Amino acid sequence: xxxKDSKCSPKLFHAMDILLxxxxxxxxxVLFAQIDSFVAxxxxxxxxxxxxxxxxxxxxxxxxxxxxxxxxxxxxxxxIAYLLLGSVxxxxxxxxxxxxxxxxxxxxxxxxxxxxxxxxxxxxxxxxSLPPPLVQFNDVxxxxxxxxxxxxxxxxxxxxxxxxxxxxxxxxxxxxxKANQDINKALEIHMDGSTTDGHGAQQExxxxxxxx
Length: 212
Known about the structure:
disordered N terminus, mainly alpha, single chain, 7 helices, 0% strand, 212 residues
């Protein structure tokens, strides 16, 4: 039931969530027929809302929900949420409410079992997590392709370290060669000046000897 990217197949978890959502909504509608007080009216409304949210999150999760309710998107967090919801369902004496509450609690312990399995039975390199919602699978694939294209573009725009080092070494060698040429020219000019001064001094000495 697990996919190659170490995320569990949605066939198990999405099916459980959708089934629970449908059962809880039906239970809320059934309880509407037994309203005898304001509290008895509120609980069916809450059950219908929670059932719709569970089904909705199986198909699509708004980005804000990851920040406002991050516990729901973990095994232990979802198990606790279902355990509390199932315990409330068991309070009602209706047979359907008791059956729905029992199923919800069983699913909660399934999530607890997966939480313990991921913590103690799987190594760190084999991380197991809840799958993304059904509608967001294509978005995840598109994001992966977009990230790969972006990485390729960045690799093309950014030179490798080896290429940069070669360019720097070549530039340094060119500068060093040019500096050596300048030094050689300066030495040649200095040597030419010294030779000219030597010839001039020798001619003056010869002229002095000639006068003597």
